[in-house]
Amino acid sequence: MPPIISVRHLHKRFKILQRRPGLGGALVNLMAPRYSEVSAVEDVSFELDEGEVVGYLGPNGAGKSTTIKVLTGLLVPTSGEVRINGKVPWLERERYVREIGAIFGYRSTLWWDLPVIDSLELLQPMYGIPAERFRSNLREFSHLLDLDAFLNTPVRSLSLGQRMRADLCAALLHEPHLLFLDEPTIGLDVVAKEHIRQFILHINRQRGVTVLLTTHDLADVERLCERVMILDRGRLLFDGSLTTLNHRFESTWTLHVDFDAEYDDVSLPGLDPPFRQGLHAEYHFDHRQVTSAELITRLLERFRIRDLEVRRPPLEETIRRIYREKLLIN
Amino acid sequence: MRRQFSLYLRLISIQLRSQMQFRASFWTDVMTTGLLNFSYFFSTYLVLQRFGSIAGWTIAEMAFLYGMIEISFGAMDMIFSGFDPDSFSRFIRQGLLDQVLLRPVSVAVQVFGSAFVLRRLGRITQGALVLAFALINLPVHWTPLKLGLLPVMWVSQIMAMGALFMVGSTLTFWTVQRVEAINILTYGGVEVMSYPMTIYPRWMRGFFTYLIPFIFLNYYPALFILGKPDPLGLPAFTPFLAPLVGGAMLFLASRFWRLGLSHYQSTGT
Amino acid sequence: MRLFLHLVKLSILEQATYRTALVAGLATNFFWGLFRAAVIVALYNGRSEVNGLTLEGAITYIAVGQAMIAFLSLFGTFELMATVYSGSIASDLIRPTPLFFLWMARDLGHSLVNLVIRGVLLLGVFALFYPIALPETPLGWGWTALSLIIGWLVSYAWRFLVNLAAFWTPDARGIGRGAFALSQLASGFIIPLRLYPEWFSHLCYLTPFPAMFNTGMEVFLGALSGGQLVRALGVQLIWFLGLVLLSQWILRAGIRRLVIQGG
Question: What distance in Å separates the CA atoms of residue B17 and residue A177, rounded to the nearest whole number?
């Protein structure tokens, strides 16, 4: 089966006008403008198969939103090939857009002044959704997303969480096979985020919708994505499974130990001295060099232990390290 | 094509519904708009009491010019509300065009459907009343041709001024801020066309003949309908050029619009 | 007083940054000036004088009108009512300076910038196309300046008053539009009042509006002299004071209403 998304050597460069200060500068600008070039996306290639849920990560300004805009047909790239559902997004905009759903976290896709239900009903003739399919989808999504409470409220009066749920419903009513989510959980509280994630999982599993999502919340990634792509300064630095990512970079684990008796020295050879507080100690170790099982065995040989726990660093921290230490630039 | 049109109607009906909600203030708005616009004609009317005529045009003939263009402009302002450069530039600045691009409908249809300011009915009504005054007081020898020319004039004028609106909006794809200068052609244009073209200095008249061909939209057809001689000696078919001029302007404007849209998609403000 | 001047200065600086708007405004005014001048010439149709107004005087009137429109804010201002609607008027009301003067300072700053850029500049460019009649004596200039200043005050007081409608209705914008259309017409901005039929100009003189512009122009063109001149200026002043008193009274009522509503 051919991949549903195919991106090859995508480049997007922007020309930024250099502003010269002062009135004289403004005049000169009008006659002889000077531009500097900024590369937002640099030689990005990837493929997505149907049914995948992929996270697209990167620090701010990495080019994530630019990529999504190209993939949704909003932006024309400087060069490169993009084929989605067999179409080139920006060339066949109207036909292409009918087959995808898109949500931008910071802006609603619904009509601001209308009640939610009016907005949703407008989508039926727009996308040409057959009446009964529309009704049944609407019923299902309203139920899953708990929209009934505010179906008659104008979109501008909704809370962020409500708006996001309404947007999700709107994006899926026409049963697209592909869903683009740009920061879908931004600004939401923990409970709301969980609801959104569950919904995304549901439509992926029940309806086989392929999902590409950009997010800053790594809990989203952990919950939803088996595969992640990491972008930094326009370049794709990593494209693989979450486990690979964890394995490759998340090296320092922590072993938390509660001792049964007071010991003077609980350090282990070959390891950094542990952090101690009363009967509690924390050992940091590189799990690629020594497994937690080994470590536990060694500890049990020497000390009487009441309780232990192995903690892996959160994805958050790993990713932060990757950005900070530029671990992927090789 | 038909689907796009029926979608347009749906979008418009939503606009209409929300505007009609606040009944009382809506009607006062319509009235105020009407009175406001009428005050300009009223001042002309008063002045002509003292002067009798301007460039050989009596008050009733002036009223004809004024009434015709006011009806058209009011209608254009209503239909092309979405393309009003002031509101469109705000639209672009707020990044609302992206959500339009995500829908499987042509952008132009969505922009047309995004606004329909009913308040402009005030302008249309006062124009119609002034026109009625003109027709009552004018000794026009009506023929089917002349009668047919009236709606043709309106449509041509709507197309031409709508084209200017569209151009003004398209410019914001590049400038982001609204281009105030376009108001000279739109709001200024209405006033220019409500007077006989012969009062303007040659260079100005030339501008309105060769650059922005206003002269063919109201003045020349009016000459024909009112049976007035042509002081500029142009060919006899000139009064009938209006639809061609209006159509050509709208066509060029739509091309420019497409250019602007593709520019927006390359630079993605 | 010092606060007043300071606010004026701030307002000047703010307005001066709107460069593109000023240029666009200049272009617009220039066009309208040419257009209206053409209408006047056509109206006169060879007559050298109508009702005491010469052709040159009428054209000057139009040109100065366009030059002054921004200075006098003849199309109206809606900022004060916006602060009532947004609630930010509360912070202004707390200040020791009366609201009337606060806004006057802001308005004056904007007006001064417009006077220089859109006013003087426009007149200069216009003079290249049409003959402009300027006051002939320094005294003439003096009286003109005085009359225009009082005219500005009258215009300001009227705009302040109109904006106060916001205390009573959410539709103050619509009311404002209507009110400003009326003042535009009756101030002689569209057509010099002398060119209207007598009954209409007499009607206008019952309102404060001619004091905003028409009177100033008559002084400018030297159409008034001696006792007439002084009387005209006096009338302007009286209108100004009347409007001030009225606006203060209405403002107090408006504030009371605001407080009761708990806006």
Answer: 35
In a domain, A330, yes or no: no
Contacts of B183 in chain C (CB under 8 A): 28
Tell me what the pLDDT averaged over chain B comes to.
Answer: 90
Q: Which domain holds residue C192?
A: 2-261
A38 plus A145 within the same structural domain:
yes
- β-strand A178-182 against A35-48: which pairing, if any? unpaired
Element (H, E) at A56: strand A53-57
Mean pLDDT in residue range B26-30: 81
Q: Provide DSSP, C159-199.
A: HHHHHGGGGT-TTHHHHHHHHHHHHHHHTTSSS-GGGS-HH
Determine whether the interchain pair B7/A126 forms a contact, defined as Cβ–Cβ distance below 8 Å: yes
Nearest-5° Cα angle at B33, B37 to B199: 15
Contact B36 C177 (CB under 8 A): yes
CB contact under 8 A, B14 and A15: no
Looking at the structure of chain A, the number of domains it has is 2
- Sheet harboring A53-57: ordered strands across? A100-104, A178-182, A210-214, A53-57, A227-232, A235-241
Of B6, B104, B265, which has the smallest distance from its Cβ to A74's Cβ? B265
Q: How many beta-carbon pairs under 8 angstroms link A with B?
A: 57
Q: Are the Cβ atoms of B10 and A122 closer than 8 angstroms?
A: yes
Residue A208, CB-side half-sphere exposure with 13 Å CA sphere = 4
A249 C-beta neighbours (distance < 10 Å), count: 19
In a domain, A328, yes or no: no
Beta-carbon separation of B266 and A114 below 8 A: no
Beta bridge partners of A236: A231
Domain ranges of chain B: 2-267
Whether A279 maps to a domain, the answer reads yes
Cβ neighbours of B118 in C, within 8 Å: none
CA–CA gap between residue B86 and residue B77 (Å, rounded): 12
**Residue A220 and residue A305 in one domain:** no
For residue A21, what pLDDT is reported?
Answer: 67
* pLDDT given for residue B20 in this prediction: 75
**Which of B183-192, C110-119, C249-258 shows the highest mean pLDDT?**
B183-192
Query: Which residues does chain A have with pLDDT short of 70?
Result: 19-31, 250, 316, 325-330
* Interface of chain B toward chain C, CB-CB under 8 angstroms: 25, 28-29, 32-33, 35-36, 39-40, 42-44, 46-47, 49-51, 54-55, 177, 179-181, 183-184, 188, 191-192, 195, 198-201, 204
DSSP of C99-148: HHHHHHHHHHHHHHHHIIIIIIHHHHHHHTTS-----SSHHHHHHHHHHH
pLDDT tens by residue, A240-250: 888 887 777 76
Q: What is the pLDDT of residues C5-25, one digit of tens each?
A: 888 888 777 776 667 777 778
Nearest to A254 by CA among A277, A223, A275: A275
Tokens found for residue B252: 């060029």
Q: Do B181 and C28 touch (CB under 8 A)?
A: yes
CA distance C146 to A148: 67
**Shortest CA distance from B13: residue in chain A:** A122
B1 shares contact with chain A (CB less than 8 Å): no
Q: For C29, name the nearest residue in chain B, comparing CA atoms only.
A: B184
Task: Answer whether residue A298 is part of any domain.
Answer: yes
Residues A212 and A79 in one domain: yes
Given an 8 Å threshold on Cβ–Cβ distance, is B35 in contact with C21?
A: no
A257 contacts: CB under 8 Å, gap ≥ 6: A266, A274, A280, A281, A282, A283, A299, A303, A305, A307, A308
Determine phi and psi for A43, rounding to 5 degrees: 50, 60
